[in-house]
Amino acid sequence: MLLILVLFSHKVYKSKPPTCVKKKKEKEKKNPHANMNKILTEILQQIFKELLKDSAKDGYSALMVNREWCNTMIPMLWENPFATGHRYNHYKIVRTLLSTLDNYSRTSLIDNGIDLSSSKSGTIFDYAFFIRNIPYDYIYKGIKDYVSSEYESETFNIIIDNNYDIKIKNIRLIFHQLLSSIINKSEFIKTIRRFHYGPHTKELDIIEDEINMIPYLPGANKSLKELYGIHISNKLNFTKFQTGLSQICKNITLVKINCETMDSSRSLASLIRSQKKLVILIIEFSEDDIFVPILESLENHKESLEYLSLKNCNFNIISEKALETLKSCKKLEILGLNHCTGLDNMKLLSLSTSFPLLRKFTFNYKKYYPLENFLIGIIKTANTNLRKITLDSFTLKITEAILKYATNFTSCELGQSEFSSAEVLKKQYIDFSTRLRNNKDYIYHKKHEPFRTFILKNNYT
Asked: Which Gene3D superfamilies match (predicted)?
């Protein structure tokens, strides 16, 4: 692959541009090769994008071919280096970024006892300029590895650091300096997010203050202006972070976040209101009575919102404005209601008939309560548009509604069992209803032993 690209590059650079092409600008008439070089760069960018889909290693090989390839590949490799690189190499990325810091920042770190001897000052490229995504958990992990010297050698043998707690201060200092550099130098940032759900993410409360300060760093007004996605799902208080973003960002389309307090809910509502076109909203609430401001803030996004997932909401306290706003989100295609209570309230039955375009519906109980009519309303309204259904509890009537209305589903998870089509579900339903014809009001939950026993005895494929 690389050999073909090398030959292609050599041929294009040596050939003369077509003389029949009319130049629109005087500058291009004087220097026709400039236009050809621009076209070549665009072609290489598209080829390199495909190359990087398989492995970042191919990208590092490509940048060694010649200067043009290097100048084209470096911005692509450094757009999201922590996500594309191997996790054992995150400390190397940190080491390189530390080398790009200005003298004042480096001196500040050194004065605080941080050893930068492995990160010599000065680099060929100012790599922070190319960064477009901030995966704060990966950055944290890279800094932790760098500070803790967890890697014994280039063979990546991990050394357990039993004295990690004493290095917390240094980790925070480096995190602050790297984020300050990225925010100040980057042309624009696309996303701020967490990528990984592993043991080290439990430690991310260490950098809570640093994350909250991101919108207030020098250069944030410029680099965060085009931010379109935030995913900071930690059980931390991001009120200040959200308030700061609401003053800068207008183009966020994706929000995935935990909401811990009413103040946090209000600041997030303010951020949502200030956006032009929100498409995806995924929120987990720590308390079930702080969700109302969020739903009320969706009024301006009823024509754009396609994906909504809520966890831990008590709909008994929903305001009229919040209910009407939620009902007006007719373009919803994915809806998740997890650990939500109060949906058996009669005034909410109209909510179940508000989403005709649903393709995917998920419902998980916090504690079981009768909700048959609401769930059947969702299924009946979405009808054949519904392709994926996930319910942790169900009744025979709900199963009948699925078989009657959602006949085009490709995945239906009921309790512990998954069905790939209506035909497969119907086969099991017939046997199921025959066995329990005298108890059609029975509720089957994935935690209930009768359901488990039934599934084990009837393992249809």
From this structure: Ribonuclease Inhibitor
